């Protein structure tokens, strides 16, 4: 059975003082984080930019997305996009 995923647009993400950006086009703001609710692992999260370049980002472990998801689900559930849910 496939895991349920959600998408969430996030503000610029930083790692070591550097903005995490699309490796293809360089977009570093308004990236979309693919979230697997309840997955608090250290596996890389998937991100994609406005041009739909998608990559696995090891500097953003899935536990980050799972934590953000729990906060958003509680405080602003309308900001979670389930249209691409699998």
Descriptive notes:
The chain is of the alpha+beta class and 86 residues long. The protein has one domain. The protein has one helix and six strands; from the N terminus they run ββββββα. It has a four-stranded antiparallel β-sheet with strand order 1-4-5-6, covered by helices on one side. The chain is globular. 12% of the residues are buried.
What form results from the Cα inertia axes?
globular
Number of domain units:
1
Helix content: 10-25%
**Topology as H/E string?**
EEEEEEH
Biggest pleated-sheet summary: 4 strands, antiparallel
**Cα radius of gyration in angstroms:** 12 Å
Q: Report the structural category.
A: alpha+beta
End-to-end Cα distance: 10 Å
Any low-confidence stretches, pLDDT <50, length ≥5?
none
Share in β-strands: 25-35%
Total helices: the number is 1
Largest sheet strand order: 1-4-5-6
Based on the structure, what is the oligomeric state of the protein chains? Answer: single chain
β-strand number? 6
Mean pLDDT: 87
């Amino acid at each position: 059975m496939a895991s349920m995923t959600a998408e969430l647009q996030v503000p610029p993400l930083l790692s070591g003082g550097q903005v995490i950006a699309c490796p293809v086009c360089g977009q570093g703001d308004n990236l979309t984080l693919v979230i697997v609710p309840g997955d608090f692992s250290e596996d890389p999260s998937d991100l994609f930019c406005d041009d739909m370049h998608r990559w696995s980002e090891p500097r953003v472990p899935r536990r980050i997305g799972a934590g953000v998801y729990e906060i958003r689900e509680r405080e602003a559930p309308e900001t979670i996009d389930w249209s691409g849910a699998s």
